[in-house]
Amino acid sequence: MAIAVYGATGHTGRLVTAELLARGQDVILAGRGEPGLRALAAELAAPHRVTVHAAPLDDAVALRRLAERADAVNHCAGPYTTTGAPVAAAAAEAGIPYVDHAIEPHPVKHLFDAYQGIAERTGAVLVPQMSFYGGLGDLLASAAAAGLPSAEGIEKVTVGYAVTGWRMTRGAVDTANLLTGETDRISYAQGMQHVGPVEVRNSVFPFPPPVGPRTTIVPFPSGEVVTVPRHVPARAVEVQLTASTFEEAQTFSSVDASPEERARTEFTVAVQLVRAEGGNRNAHVRGRDIWRAGALVSVEAVLRLTGGEGPRKAGVFSPAEAFEAAPFLRSLADQEAFETLKLPEG
Q1: Which of 178, 208, 249, 325 sits CB 3.0–4.6 Å from 143 for a disulfide?
Q2: Number of CB atoms found within 10 A of residue 244's CB
Q3: In terms of Cα–Cα distance, which of 228, 232, 221 is closest to 138?
Q4: What angle (nearest 5°) sits at the alpha carbon of residue 79, between those of residues 74 and 80?
Q5: pLDDT number for residue 151
Q6: Is the pTM of this model over 0.85?
């Protein structure tokens, strides 16, 4: 079995590759430039388990050949606004599993809109935002809602991210710049998805101790507004990020940071469900190194998909539609993707 890691030379791609190799998987190092891929292959020094496949985003033939060689694709090269569709299309047409690390809502929505029919025809399973941002929020929302009667209304799902010490890669900076300049944002309110201008404001989210209530940026443009309503019957879904995250000096100025420096991130991801009949339900994870956490989320997903542990049918799925949320999160906790996991009892 060989897993293609597209964007293998980036920080996330290297983490994903290392994790796959540690779990005994063969890896196809893929991306836009062959010299960098060959340099990485030499650095890994695993000649019998690593091969190289250069496939520029505008070369549909090379991308198709990559998908034909691979048993699955783990797409690590953002911004997905520009990189997502070509790689996803190749995997969908080849009928193989695909996961990515997208945060941007529009590329996530595009996968559901454009590739559902293709995936059903070819037998592919595509799961966008299988990472730290987006993926953990989607899984936590599903776990928090588990056991509620399906007819019971949920007024609002709020996903809160508290992140300190974030050191963005070049791809993350490019993604942030794209999202900042977006005028038509995706939101979910009054039981409907909306596309259009939104007012960015500050709010306060009640993160669990030791973080506590923090001022947040609302809305934070993450894909949960697309995926959570697919499996949680909520009238509104909103994502928030601590305002202090973007006030830290190193956040945007650390594109050349070392892997050790990037690992110093501390995070809490918390979900609050407000029920129509009163009362809340909460779930959260807390840990260190958002990059490693995201890599483990995606690797766990892609190995489950190639092992036949995913959905029983083909198509495009949110993380919590593809995998039962609570067991998936507990498996990540066992792998030390985070230090604390708190889910509702029962």
Answers
A1: 325
A2: 15
A3: 228
A4: 55
A5: 54
A6: yes
Instruction: Classify residue 49 as left (phi > 0), alpha (psi -120 to 50) or beta.
Output: alpha
Phi, psi of 287 (to 5 degrees): -175, -160
Instruction: Dig out the tokens for 275 from the structure.
Output: 């029920």
As a whole number of angstroms, the distance between CA 283 and CA 145 comes to 9
Give me the helices (H) in 9-49, please.
11-22, 34-44
Residues 21/27, Cβ–Cβ less than 8 Å? yes
Residue recorded with tokens 């919590």: 320
Amino acid at 213: P
User: What single-letter amino acid sits at 47?
Assistant: P
Q: Which of 87, 97, 241 is nearest to 160 (CA)?
A: 241
User: CB of 258 within 8 A of CB of 271?
Assistant: no
CA triple 124-290-318, angle to 5 deg: 30
- Alpha-carbon distance of 173 to 40, in angstroms, equals 23
Adjacency order of strands within the sheet including 98-100: 50-54, 26-31, 2-6, 72-75, 98-100, 125-127, 315-316
Q: What is the pLDDT of residue 150?
A: 66
Q: Side chain identity at 289, as an amino acid letter?
A: D
CA 296 → CA 8, 40, 140, distances in Å?
15, 20, 16
Given a cut of 80, whether residue 152 has pLDDT beyond it is no
pLDDT tens, residue by residue, 213-247: 999 999 999 999 999 999 999 999 999 999 999 99
Cis check: omega of the bond before 229, within 30 degrees of 0 = no
